[in-house]
């Protein structure tokens, strides 16, 4: 099982280590550093590294490498999933997962890691249970703690861990009972030069924020459940009901959680909300190039496209850009070679355009690779797949909760080739 | 007010200060001090000196303080074992605390203190906790057994904890079950042969029930454990699959992949025509696709596994090509894996899309990725014939970009395309030649040289081109040198008049100025070939090349099956068998996919697979260490005869050069010759005693020299004196169907031993090894009496003759036709099946002469309906010659009678299984048509006996 964990920052400093079995010397990380150097970009470090006596399985999150050491045959996905869970827990506890916050809360971090694994076996990874065991820091609590000397470790047995619904603690009480669901869809797409869709799919999630007293039993139904043929559920969802009735029936965890994720595959027709007309060319001589980008609405279902941002990864030889944007602002970073054009709201009457010239390093040959455009956007009140929630019913409790559903569509990995 | 302050205290008196604080009376101050200690420990500072002071804080009601102290203890107990004993009492006391949380915490912490002395004290509390009323404590204790086992395995066994742990598999609480399974799995890894996880239908049922209710991590442990189970039949296997399928919709990708493993393994047992089988196949695709939308690290592991799944069952993902399209911001390790899978999924239906994508990738930034994309285009051309033309034009477009590494990769793959589709795309050679100067990588240079040599007759200035390479011969890599040598020899054979000088130059460079034995050997071989027999040289050097295989880097089927059983593990990420992991696999046993019910096919294939490594006998061939030595050894096989016969008609001026070279060679030879030659006949003689082994050893001999053997045709004709007729070899397995392996063969009966004579020819590009053979059950129980004697790897284009002795003691099953034999031959590439038919005369035993009286009685005894009549036409033999001929095949004439100018021969035959066949043959003088009447208790053999008569008499 998982033997040890090392946290390493982007500069290559090892700033935290935790061993769940015997202590493994931190020199084992030399193999990681070697791989890190070879990969050049931190994103490109291979997730599984073999060393003579151990395997290093790592993830890169928020500029921190979570490097775990294993000694025996362990499913790598299990380790990677766990590491992501660790990162999420830190995020959950401290608001962000960064070197500073981890160092600021090192004792809690240590306690958390101790609770999450026992001898390398996962122990408590549900945020609900962890929060019962170790209270998250708040400014108020840390003040109170310093004054009174009380601790942020729970005194009680985490009851949830023993029940058949380990995700929910008993005795939850709210004055305002509310259940909100966000349907968030991300479009992953690749469009080619001419604007034809090479590939498009939708990754959807339903995020829930449920603050209900007692033990409510909820069921959520859709107008068009047939859209969903590839789904992953939170453990609380009763799979049998879904199989037979296409209804999501569950006893919710308390607070925020992800109820389900779904995937609408490339085989279905996916609506593409915007089109991009672009022309980026470099001249054979003169060390310069020209660029002209226009963005316009395509299938927006009558909604407004907001937060529109176009990012261009320029070839290395591009020194600067002298452009003119009819809407929004642009910024070219000559170090990272990334051009960001922040458009904002898309006005269908007056299409935004960015046009001008690019200057290259003098004497440099015409770049070999084509730059690639990434689009970011947001459409409120729309699930682009057409998914609609029908109703939410609650059983098991007598009060009447507030209910609400919000839809939003975003661009995921939305790429336009040039 | 954050913890980061703990990091900043680096003052000198720190330890001293902390000591004072730890011993303070104030609770808050104490706790603050412990926190500081922990923080220092976290960042790797040594605070072990504070051990006694920290342990003193252990007796507290404050849970947080207790936990912090426990943390500290776990870290430092090892370095202070004596001090750690001081803490034992508190632990034991805590294990009886009314609060289950404290009990669990205590037993958990005790297990983490890796000190031998403490373990003795741990046993009693642990035993209690394993039977605790609270499941939370039980599940913690279960893990503690694994911890203890890690520290002191003997103790755990002696105390009987393993049995208690096994009992916990039937616990009422699913979490306890999951942890017990996890602990047992870990312990089992260090106990390869113990059956700790002895799974039976009852425990399986328990596990499946627990699977629904335990945490995601528990589900992973249980699924991995289920995957080791062998269901009894297809129904059990289906019911397990049904109960595991819902796990495919789990949010945790590790659960999903473990479920995929169980399903992939168990569906192997389901009959393919079952509706459920199809449903299951359909259900597998979406979760695999979903894994690809997760974080890149998860994607990577998923992709490595999908690569295996696609090889095993391409149908699952054949419609999902698009999800493998590479995105701009994918990490490089994901991009490369996706590309691999795209090629595996490429087919005629989607090739246009794939090509368009690959062309797009070839303009990306990352050099490694671009290279692989260009190679992928070439692989597509070879895989999907219809796309070859488009691939070639795409490659030409890419060459026009003049991007150096793109051009080089393109040339390497175009070479392969030329080989696959000869005489089709040679028009592009001119374009390739334009880029000659820009090639700086050995592989690309070698490819280009190969092209020039291969198509020398179409390239006007081929000699100039090759000459330009020759200038820096010694600076080139071996690969290029070898290729250049061959190319120039080819050129010489095609245009002998203009290139004599060139070929002489390269031969002397290769043989005299090079230290590389490979190069020198090849140089000598060419040299001698050219000097002895230019016609033969032409046949050898310009021989037709074997096919190149369509799929590259496919995983060997047996390994693939094993890896499928290990989906989701490290082995699946590295595509290596778990036994290849030295550290991690002390106890991993080879896992196999279960056999499909009701079909002998897969069962047999696994049999063949297993027989491979174990049956390979030790090689009797002298070591091949010195390549040159081997070469000399081989050359001498037709000794000296070659030397005087140097063709005077040679047009080349290399004669004088040759003479000198050979003389010196000969001098060396005669010294080594005696030993080498002396060795081999004696070996042959030793084996000769057992006639069955002899052809085998003969067959193996040419393999010694690797690819050189066939040059000298040593292996030809296994001329055994034999009485019975042996049919000429026929091709049983076409190279096309055998992934390059061609098998032809025949059957013979020699001295009472049945033999199957095989000729194996490797027409593929890669070396073949690990041959094994297996028969299906057949009418007369024929089975190999020994392993297939192919001791050395079969190199490309090499042929080997093998004789396989057969016994008739194998399992019997009636075949249709009766003499049909189904054979499976395995090598490192795949398992191949073919069927052949043997003459029944193979089974005629030597003691088949029946007594006259018995013959008469038997003849009468067999009912008339069992008599069959045949005509044997066009035989011009008299009765005595015919009867002699038949006797050679163990058909014995018992009596002869002459009636009215007709010779009546009464004959008997006995089969290996004891069946007697009686025959009466009528021969009329002057009539070439014989009449044959056959009587037998098993009338179905008559037809085949007649065929034997015909065969024997006509040959």
Automatic annotation (TrEMBL), chain A:
Topology within the bilayer: Peripheral membrane protein
InterPro entries for the chain: Adaptor_comp_med_subunit, AP2_Mu_C_sf, AP_mu_sigma_su, Clathrin_mu, Clathrin_mu_CS, Longin-like_dom_sf, MHD
Entry superkingdom: Eukaryota
Keywords associated with the record: Cytoplasmic vesicle, Golgi apparatus, Membrane, Protein transport, Transport
Domain annotation MHD: ranges: 176-417
GO terms for biological process, alphabetical: intracellular protein transport; vesicle-mediated transport
One Gene Ontology cellular component: clathrin adaptor complex
Function of the protein: Part of the AP-3 complex, an adaptor-related complex which is not clathrin-associated. The complex is associated with the Golgi region as well as more peripheral structures. It facilitates the budding of vesicles from the Golgi membrane and may be directly involved in trafficking to lysosomes.
Protein family according to the UniProt entry: Belongs to the adaptor complexes medium subunit family.
Protein name as it appears in the record: AP-3 complex subunit mu-1
Organism (species): Carassius auratus (Goldfish)
Lineage: Eukaryota, Metazoa, Chordata, Craniata, Vertebrata
TrEMBL record, chain B:
Transferase as UniProt keyword: no
Main location: membrane
Keywords: Acetylation, Membrane, Protein transport, Transport
Domain Beta-adaptin appendage C-terminal subdomain, residue spans: 844-954
Domain Clathrin adaptor alpha/beta/gamma-adaptin appendage Ig-like subdomain: 725-835
GO cellular component, one term: endomembrane system
Domain of life: Eukaryota
Compartment(s) of residence: Endomembrane system
Keyword Endoplasmic reticulum set for record: no
GO MF entry, a single one: clathrin binding
Compositional bias segments (type: Low complexity): 597-606
Chain positions covered by the region annotation Disordered: 584-623
Family annotation (InterPro entries): AP_beta, AP_complex_bsu_1_2_4, ARM-like, ARM-type_fold, Armadillo, B-adaptin_app_sub_C, Clathrin/coatomer_adapt-like_N, Clathrin_a/b/g-adaptin_app_Ig
Topology of this chain in the membrane: Peripheral membrane protein
GO biological process: animal organ development; intracellular protein transport; vesicle-mediated transport
Family: Belongs to the adaptor complexes large subunit family.
Full protein name: AP complex subunit beta
Organism of this sequence: Carassius auratus (Goldfish)
């Amino acid at each position: 099982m998982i033997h040890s964990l090392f946290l390493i920052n982007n500069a290559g400093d090892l700033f935290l280590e935790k061993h769940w079995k015997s202590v493994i010397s931190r020199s084992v990380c030399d193999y990681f550093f070697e791989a890190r150097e070879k990969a050049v970009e931190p994103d490109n470090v291979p997730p599984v590294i073999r060393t003579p006596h151990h395997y290093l399985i790592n993830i890169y999150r928020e500029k921190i490498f979570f490097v775990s050491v294993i000694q025996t045959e362990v499913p790598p996905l299990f380790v990677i999933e766990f590491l992501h869970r660790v990162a999420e827990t830190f995020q959950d506890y401290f608001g962000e997962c960064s070197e500073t916050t981890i160092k600021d809360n090192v004792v809690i971090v240590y306690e958390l890691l101790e609770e999450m694994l026992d001898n390398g076996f996962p122990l408590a990874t549900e945020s609900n249970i962890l929060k019962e065991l170790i209270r998250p820091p708040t400014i108020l609590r840390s003040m109170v703690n310093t004054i009174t000397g009380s601790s942020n470790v729970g005194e009680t047995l985490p009851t949830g861990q023993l029940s058949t619904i380990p995700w929910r603690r008993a005795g939850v009480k709210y004055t305002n009972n509310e259940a909100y669901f966000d349907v968030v869809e991300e479009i992953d797409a690749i469009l080619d030069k001419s604007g034809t869709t090479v590939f498009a799919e939708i990754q959807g999630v339903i995020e829930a924020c449920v603050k209900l007293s007692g033990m409510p039993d909820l069921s959520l139904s859709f107008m068009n459940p047939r859209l969903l043929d590839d789904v992953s559920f939170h453990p609380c969802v009763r799979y049998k009901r879904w199989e037979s009735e296409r209804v999501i029936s569950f006893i919710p965890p308390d607070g925020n959680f992800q109820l389900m994720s779904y995937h609408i595959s490339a085989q279905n027709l996916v609506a593409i909300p915007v089109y991009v007309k672009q022309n980026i060319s470099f001249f054979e001589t003169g060390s310069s190039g020209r660029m002209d980008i226009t963005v316009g609405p395509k299938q927006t279902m009558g909604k407004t496209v907001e937060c529109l941002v176009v990012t261009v990864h320029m070839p290395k030889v591009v020194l600067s850009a002298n452009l003119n944007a009819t809407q929004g602002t642009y910024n070219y970073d000559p170090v990272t070679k990334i051009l960001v054009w922040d458009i904002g709201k898309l006005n269908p009457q007056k299409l935004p355009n960015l046009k001008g010239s690019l200057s290259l390093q003098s004497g440099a040959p015409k770049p070999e690779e084509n730059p690639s455009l990434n689009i970011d956007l947001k459409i409120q009140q729309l699930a682009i797949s057409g998914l609609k929630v029908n109703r939410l019913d609650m059983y098991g409790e007598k009060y009447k909760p507030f209910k609400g559903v919000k839809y939003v569509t975003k661009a995921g990995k939305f790429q336009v080739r040039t | 007010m954050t913890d980061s302050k703990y990091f900043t205290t680096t003052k000198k008196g720190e330890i001293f200060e902390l000591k004072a604080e730890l011993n303070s009376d104030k609770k808050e101050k104490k706790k603050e001090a412990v926190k500081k200690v922990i923080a220092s420990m976290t960042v790797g500072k040594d605070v072990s000196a504070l051990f006694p002071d920290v342990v003193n804080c252990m007796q507290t009601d404050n849970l947080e303080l207790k936990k912090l102290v426990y943390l500290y203890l776990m870290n430092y107990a090892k370095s202070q074992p004596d001090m750690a004993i001081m803490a034992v009492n508190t632990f034991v006391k805590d294990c009886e605390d009314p609060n289950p949380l404290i009990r669990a915490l205590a037993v958990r912490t005790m297990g983490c203190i890796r000190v031998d002395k403490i373990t003795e004290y741990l046993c009693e509390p642990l035993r209690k906790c394993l039977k605790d009323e609270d499941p939370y404590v039980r599940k913690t204790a279960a893990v503690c057994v694994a911890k203890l086992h890690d520290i002191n395995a003997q103790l755990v066994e002696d105390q009987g904890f393993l049995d208690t742990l096994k009992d916990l598999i039937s616990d009422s609480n699913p979490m306890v079950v999951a942890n017990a399974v996890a602990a047992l799995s870990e312990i089992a890894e260090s106990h390869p042969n113990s059956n700790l996880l002895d799974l039976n239908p009852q425990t399986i049922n328990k596990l499946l029930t627990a699977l629904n209710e335990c945490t995601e991590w528990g589900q992973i442990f249980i699924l991995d454990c289920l995957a080791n189970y062998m269901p009894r039949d297809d129904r059990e296997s289906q019911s397990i699959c049904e109960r595991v399928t819902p796990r495919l919709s789990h949010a945790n990708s590790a659960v999903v992949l473990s479920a995929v493993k169980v399903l992939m393994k168990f569906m192997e047992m389901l009959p393919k025509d079952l509706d459920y089988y199809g449903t299951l196949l359909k259900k597998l695709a979406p979760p695999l696709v979903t894994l690809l939308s997760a974080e890149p690290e998860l994607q990577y592991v998923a992709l490595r596994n999908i690569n295996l799944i696609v090889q095993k069952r391409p149908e699952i993902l054949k419609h999902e090509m698009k999800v493998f399209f590479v995105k701009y911001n994918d990490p490089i390790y994901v991009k490369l894996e996706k590309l691999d899978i795209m090629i595996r999924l490429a087919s005629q239906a989607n090739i246009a899309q794939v090509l368009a994508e690959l062309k797009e990738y070839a303009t990306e930034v990352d050099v490694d990725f671009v290279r692989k994309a260009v190679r992928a285009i070439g692989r597509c051309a070879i895989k999907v014939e219809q796309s070859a033309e488009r691939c070639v034009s795409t490659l030409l477009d890419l060459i026009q970009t003049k991007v150096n590494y793109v051009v080089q990769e393109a040339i390497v793959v175009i070479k392969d395309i030329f080989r696959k589709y000869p005489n089709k795309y040679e028009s592009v050679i001119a374009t390739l030649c334009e880029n000659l100067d820009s090639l700086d990588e050995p592989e690309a240079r070698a490819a280009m040289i190969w092209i020039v040599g291969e198509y020398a007759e179409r390239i006007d200035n081929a000699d100039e081109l090759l000459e330009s390479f020759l200038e820096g011969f010694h600076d080139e890599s071996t690969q290029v040198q070898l290729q250049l040598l061959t190319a120039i020899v080819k050129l010489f054979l095609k245009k002998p008049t203009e290139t004599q000088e060139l070929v002489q130059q390269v031969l002397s460079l290769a043989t005299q100025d090079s230290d590389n034995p490979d190069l020198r050997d090849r140089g000598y071989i060419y040299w001698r070939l050219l000097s002895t027999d230019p016609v033969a040289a032409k046949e050898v050097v310009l021989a037709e090349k074997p096919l190149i295989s369509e799929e590259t880097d496919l995983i060997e089927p047996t390994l693939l099956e094993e890896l499928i059983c290990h989906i989701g593990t490290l082995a699946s990420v590295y595509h290596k068998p778990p036994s290849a992991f030295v550290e991690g696999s002390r106890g991993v046993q080879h896992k196999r996919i279960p056999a499909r019910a009701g079909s002998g096919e897969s069962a047999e294939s696994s049999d063949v697979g297993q027989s491979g490594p174990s049956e390979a006998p030790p090689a009797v061939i002298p070591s091949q260490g010195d390549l040159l030595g081997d070469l000399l050894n081989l050359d001498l096989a037709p000794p000296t005869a070659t030397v005087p016969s140097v063709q005077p008609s040679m047009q080349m001026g290399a004669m004088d050069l040759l003479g000198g070279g050979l003389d010196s060679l000969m001098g060396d030879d005669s010294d080594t010759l005696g030993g080498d030659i002396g060795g081999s006949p004696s070996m042959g003689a030793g084996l000769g005693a057992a006639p069955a082994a002899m052809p085998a050893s003969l067959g193996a001999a040419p393999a010694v020299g690797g690819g050189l053997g066939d040059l000298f045709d040593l292996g030809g004709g296994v001329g055994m004196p034999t009485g019975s007729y042996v049919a000429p070899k026929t091709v049983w397995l076409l190279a096309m169907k055998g992934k390059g392996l061609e098998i032809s063969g025949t059957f013979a009966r020699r001295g009472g031993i049945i033999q199957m004579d095989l000729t194996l020819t490797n027409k593929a590009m890669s070396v073949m090894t690990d041959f094994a053979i297996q028969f299906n059950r057949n009418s007369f129980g024929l089975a190999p009496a020994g392993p297939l004697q192919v001791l050395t790897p079969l190199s490309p284009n090499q042929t080997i003759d093998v004789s396989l002795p057969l016994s008739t003691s194998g399992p019997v099953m009636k075949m249709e036709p009766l003499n049909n034999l189904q054979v499976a031959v395995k090598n490192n590439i795949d398992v191949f099946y073919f069927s052949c038919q043997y003459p029944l005369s193979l089974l005629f035993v030597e003691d088949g002469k029946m007594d006259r009286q018995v013959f008469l009685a038997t003849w009468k005894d067999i009912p008339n309906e069992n008599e069959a009549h045949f005509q044997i036409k066009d035989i011009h033999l008299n009765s005595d010659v015919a009867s002699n001929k038949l006797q050679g095949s163990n058909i014995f004439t018992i009596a002869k009678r002459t009636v009215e100018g007709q010779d009546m021969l009464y004959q008997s035959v006995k089969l290996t299984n004891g069946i007697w066949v009686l025959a009466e043959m009528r021969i009329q003088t002057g009539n070439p048509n014989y009449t044959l009447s056959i009587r037998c208790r098993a009338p179905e053999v008559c037809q085949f006996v007649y065929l034997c008569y015909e065969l024997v008499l006509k040959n």
